[in-house]
Amino acid sequence: MAFFFSEDTPVRKKIFTFLKFLFFLGLGITIIWLSLKNLTPSERGQILHSFRIAQYNWVVLAIVLGIFSHILRSLRWRIFLEPMGYQPSVKNTFYAVMIGYFANLAFPRLGEVTRCGILARYEKIPFQKSFGTVITERAIDMMMFFLLFVVMILTQIGTIRNYLDTKVYPQIMGKFSNPASYRLLLLAILGVLLILVTAFILLRKQIAHTRIYQQIRNIVLGFWEGLKSLGQIRKPVWFVLYTLSIWLLYFLMLYVCFFCFEGTSFLSVGAGLSALVLGSIGIMITPGGIGLYPAIVQETLLLYGVLKPTGLALGWIAWTAQTAMILVVGGIALLLLTFNKQADGNA
Q1: First to last CA, the chain
Q2: How many C-beta atoms lie closer than 10 Å to residue 29's C-beta?
């Protein structure tokens, strides 16, 4: 656990992190229960049958593609660090990335801290500088996600519009059918923002000495360092190629799983894009997407004519492939890094 929590981490922070983890884990388990409780015995039997007849050679290919995506992420991270004068080894950078994902399965958002801590320990790269590049990297990935979201909307509008018109929009409009309720919500949001801005202006000197302010300030400064490194990268073409390739491999990781079942092998690239984009939302919300990712994939594929049991089975297989890859490769990376440290210490 040395990589996950530093010795000087306050006990209250550890407890808060653990409680947050329990909340999102509980949310994932609740979603699993909700997605299974309404299934008929026949549908449950179909899901088990789908697991038995799945062609797992495609799952192996998905795992290999996932490993390659993380290798490219490691190479891209090195490009970020080069303008600052640091050139960490590919091996340690890859170990840091995989251990970071490994840590995220235990505690959401802990991976970003963990991987920067590893580079600080093994490559002597200041934590704040590497953390700034990670924040910038995440921002770039979010931009890629939103770009793919827009592409999905533009290319799959015919399929998605029917779902939005029948299931999403009516619920939203039902909540805001009363104009007074809408105005009250808007005024409440504006009022809270006004209070927060006013409090910051009046108490900024006192706030400047608080720990949370210093943490936010360090994050902003680190983000600025990351932005500066982005503007000074020496291999912009490689950076773009790595970024596009990472997301292409993310897509292929899921898309090749479609060929596990006859009932999903006919699906188009557009269906794969929709499942990737919407499924990614589940990964953002619950730890590793547990419960929510398979449910979202199943609901998405339902729009493309895939039976509910088959879609849910595919969602679980795709999620299991991604999670198993992180557990196995991340665990091996943690062991290798530990052994390397011991070997260095005995040298």
Answers
A1: 24
A2: 13
pLDDT values of the chain reduced to their tens digit, one per residue, 347 residues: 444 444 445 566 556 555 655 655 565 566 555 555 665 666 567 677 777 888 999 999 999 999 999 999 999 999 988 888 889 999 999 999 999 998 887 776 778 888 999 999 889 888 888 888 888 888 888 889 989 999 998 898 888 777 666 655 565 555 555 555 556 767 777 888 788 777 767 766 666 666 666 666 666 665 566 566 666 777 889 999 999 999 999 999 999 999 999 989 999 999 999 999 988 888 877 777 777 888 889 889 988 989 888 888 899 899 888 988 998 998 899 888 877 654 454 44
What amino acid is encoded at 202 in this protein? L
Query: Given the structure tokens 């062991």, which residue do they identify?
Result: 335
323 class by beta-carbon count within 10 Å (0-12 exposed, 13-18 middle, 19+ buried): middle
Count Cα neighbours of 92 within 13 Å in the Cβ-side half-sphere: 19
Q: Which of 66, 51, 13, 230 is nearest to 138 (CA)?
A: 230
Angle (nearest 5°) at CA 204 between 202 and 210: 135
Please tell me the distance from the alpha carbon of residue 8 to that of residue 65, in angstroms, as a whole number: 38
Helix (H) or strand (E) holding 186: helix 179-207
Supply the pTM of this predicted model: 0.73
